[in-house]
RNA sequence: GCCCAAGUGGCGGAAUGGUAGACGCAGGGGAUUCAAAAUCCCCCGCCGCAAGGCGUGCCGGUUCGAGUCCGGCCUUGGGUACCA
C-alpha cells in the first residue's frame, strides 16, 4: 500500500478491536472504573452530524480513559418511543414498531463504521418490552411510595380532530393538521411529585462542581424558590361559599399600592360566577383558547373582565378593590389570584391603563419625587426606598429588607404568613398516545384506580393497531382495554394513557449497568458503575431531561433500587453545542412554509428552478429538514476524517455550522500524517543529537498540551497542537530512531480522535499490541524547558518591542535589559519610568 | 414575555487579566511537472509609500495592562414543562 486508504484499513482495525474484546466492560475491581455516556439518540432513521459530534467526543474521552488504565463503561442504546414513529405511521401507513426497529437497525449500521469504543453487548431500546416492563415496575414502586398521584391538568385540545396535541403540533394557536383554533381542556392525569423534592434538587446543585455553571443556574431559576406573603382579601357579597380570595405575592412591600385583584379564568370563583354570567362565560371560553405553553400565555394580549365584585384591603377595610378575571393569571402558579400594583409593575400598569384603574405609588424613589407618579417605578437596587403609605414603619429600607419587614409586620397583625414557594411544578407524565410505555393501572368501577400486579408485567402494547384516524389507538382497540381488576377480579378497564418519553430517558443510564437484570436495577452493578463519570449531550436538555433524571435517581433510591450515593447521577456534565445548518424553505398555496433538504438545494434553487428562501442557521431538526447526512463523508474519506473534522472545526461547547469544505482538508492532513509515518518507518537515516533533543522537547510539549486538551474538552485546541507537532516532525533533522519514537507518540496522541489511522501507524512504526490499549504517554516537565524565552516589552500597556532572555533570569536583570532597549530609551527621552512591571515568563510593562 | 448563553480577519476559530488573530480553510505568489493532479516553500486583520495609527458587536467603568472583570445596551441562538 502506497497511500492512505481508509476503506482498506478501517474495517480491519474494527475487527481487531472486536476480536480482542477491549471495549467489553467487565467488573474489574483492580482498575478504577470510568463510566462515560453520551445522551442516547432518538432513532430517526439516519445519523446526522450532531450524532457524529456527540459520540466522537464521548469516544475521545472513553479511549483516553482506557489508555490511562481505567475500566471503562461506554454503552449505547435507543430512546425509541415518541411521536415521530406515530407521525410516520399516519403519513405512510406502516406500524410505529416496525418503523422504529428498522430505524434502529439502520442507525446501528451507520454508527458502527465510526469506530466508537462502545460495549454493544449492553445495547437496548426503550421500546423493548424488557425495558419498559421494568419501567412499569418502577412506576408501581413509585406509586406505592407516594411519588405518583393523579390530578387535573390542561392539555391542548384540537376540537376538529378531537385529539390532544403536543405543543409542537400547535402553530400560532392552531392545530397543525386541522388548522382549528386550539382549546385548553382539563384531563385527569398522572403526576410525579417532583415539587416535593424542590428544595433538595435546588440545594444539591451546589455539589455539582463539574457541571457547567450555566446549567446549574438555569435549573436554579427553573426551580424558582421565592419568599413571599400569602394572605386573603375579604370578599364583599360573593357567591355562596366564597368569602375571601387567597393571594400569594413576592412583593408584599407594594401592598399599599394595590389597585385591583385579579383571578385566573380557571379559579373556582371564576368558574362559579360564569354559571350566572354569560358574558363572563364567553370571556373565560375565549381565555381558554390557544396553546398551553408559558410563552403563548405570557405573550398573549393582557385582557380582563370586571366581575363587579369587590374585596376589602386587609389594612383598611373601607378601601375596596375591584375583582377582575384576567387571562394572564395561571391557576398553576401560587393561588391563581394576585393583587395588581400598577405603580410598580409594567404588566399591572398596562392593565390599569387599559381598564382605567387607579395607579397608587406605594413608595417613592426619594422624598421630593412627584407623588402623582403615573409611570411604573422600579426601585434602584442599591438605593433605599421610602414608604409613602407605610405599614411597617416610616423607615428607609432596600427591597429585600422591605419585603421581610412587611412580612413580619403582616404576621404580627394577623394578615397572612410568610411562605416559601417554588416555581417548579409537578411532572405530568400522562400522554394520550400509543407509542409509549403503558401506564400499568386498571380502572375498576368498584375499586377505583388499581395498580397492576407485578407478575403481569410487562403490560405490552398491542401490535394490531391502526393510525388512519386521529386519536389514541389504544382507546379504540376492541379488546386491549379489557382487563380484570387486580384487586377484586371484576371486569375492568386498562389505563390507555402512556408515559411521557422523558420517563424512558430518566433512568436508562442506570439500566446500562445491568441491562438484562430481571429487576429494574442490579444493586451490585449499579453500586459498582454509578455514577456516570462524564455525561455529554446537547445544551437543549439543560433543564428538563437533566432535572427529571436527578429526580428519578432519587426516586429509584427511595424505592430501594439504587444506593443513596448515586442519587445525584451525573458527576460531570458537558453540554456540547449543536450542529446547525441553514434552513431552505418555500411556501405552499396557503402560505405555509415547506422545507427542503440541503441535498435538494443547488445554488439557492430546487431542481425545478424554484428559488428557496434561506433562513439563518438553526438547530438541525427533522421538521425543518436542515439535516446533513454524514454517511457520504464516511464513504468518501473514511470515519477518521469525519471524526477529525467534527472535533477540529469548532470548540465543543459552541454551535458549529456544518460546511462541506473542511472535510477535504481533514482528509489531506490525515493522508499527510500517514505518509510521514510510512516514510519514517522505512527510514534509517542518522541525525544530530541536537536535532534529536529538539524533537524530543517538542514531543513532550505536545504530550502535555494534547493531554490537557483531551482532559478539558479542548478538542479543537488539542487538534491544532497536533497539526503543529506534525509540522515539526515533518521538518525535523533528527535520526530515524528518534523520529520513530516521536511518530509513535503522535499515533498515541491521535488515537482517541482517529483510532483506525493511529493503529495503522502504530503497527508500521513497530508499536507493540494495539495502540488503543497502549499506556498513554506522560510528559516529562524537565524535557519541556526551553533555554531562552521571548518577552514582550510594553510601554504604557502597548507592545513596543521584545527581548530574548534566559528562562530563569531574575526580575531586576530582565528589567535592566528591557529598559536598555532602543524602543524604551526613545520613549523615555532621558526621564525615569514611573513604574516597571515584570511578570516572570510573561511580560514587561514600562509605565511612563 | 421570562430564564440562560454567544458575538474576535473573507471563513471556522486561538489566547491562566499579560505579544490579539495560534492552528486550519479560502485567497495570492513561487518550486516541481511536457502538462496536470498530488506534494513542497513563502505571503496573508484594516488604513498608510513610510513612520505610524486603528482594531475582539455598541456605550461606559475597573486596572500598569481588558477579547477576558464590572454596569448598561444591541443582535443571534437555546429553553419555556406534550419535539427529543
Automatic annotation (TrEMBL):
Subcellular location as annotated: Cytoplasm
Domain Leucyl-tRNA synthetase editing: 220-369
Residue ranges annotated for the Methionyl/Valyl/Leucyl/Isoleucyl-tRNA synthetase anticodon-binding domain, each copy included: 692-810
Keywords carried by this UniProt record: Aminoacyl-tRNA synthetase, ATP-binding, Cytoplasm, Ligase, Nucleotide-binding, Protein biosynthesis
Motif ('KMSKS' region): 619-623
Main location, first listed in the record: cytoplasm
Record EC number: 6.1.1.4
Any one GO molecular-function label of the UniProt entry: leucine-tRNA ligase activity
Catalytic reaction list: tRNA(Leu) + L-leucine + ATP = L-leucyl-tRNA(Leu) + AMP + diphosphate
Motif ('HIGH' region): 41-51
Gene Ontology cellular-component terms listed: cytosol
Domain Methionyl/Leucyl tRNA synthetase: 36-171
InterPro entries in UniProt: aa-tRNA-synth_I_CS, aa-tRNA-synth_Ia, Leu-tRNA-ligase, Leu_tRNA-synth_edit, M/V/L/I-tRNA-synth_anticd-bd, Methionyl/Leucyl_tRNA_Synth, Rossmann-like_a/b/a_fold, tRNAsynth_Ia_anticodon-bd
Gene Ontology biological-process annotations: leucyl-tRNA aminoacylation
Family statement drawn from the similarity comment of this UniProt entry: Belongs to the class-I aminoacyl-tRNA synthetase family.
NCBIfam families reported for this sequence: leuS_bact
Name of the protein: Leucine--tRNA ligase
Organism ancestry: Bacteria, Pseudomonadati, Pseudomonadota, Alphaproteobacteria, Rhodobacterales
